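[step 3/7] fold_predict: job queued, chain A
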Amino acid sequence: MYRDVTTSSTRAYNGPGCHERRDISPTGRFLANTLHLVSYTPTRPVVAQDLGMFIASVVFLGPGKGGRKTRPESGYHPQVDAGDVFTSCAIECFDGETRWEFDTPYRVALRLLFPDLYQDRFSVGSTVRFYEGSRLVGTGTILEVC
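[step 4/7] structure written:
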């Protein structure tokens, strides 16, 4: 049993489409807080002049190749390999796709969450690798630097 609780701090920190789920035992005892992404709808269109924005061709790996068990959706936030460090990024739909199939190349918008620190590590033709923890979940190539 659970109770959904959406607070202003949950929305402010996690953005629209996220909610906090409080797991409750059958006796009403609090068990745990978890955050779940319900759906993601970009709050504004992708703008090419955004700092830390790239257009990339990416392929997401499925469970048969050691990747994700579920298909990623627009707004997905994996870690991206920036050479000697990993940093956070957001992958957003660019050509209308909102949920991506495994092992199929897609053109996407890749936005670094900390562009001032890592934007210079990516250039046209750079290979990008996406991770969830130590698990490789996708690869790609930078097509454009915006």
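[step 5/7] annotate
The chain has two domains: 2-37, 53-145.
DSSP finds two helices and nine strands in the chain.
exit 0
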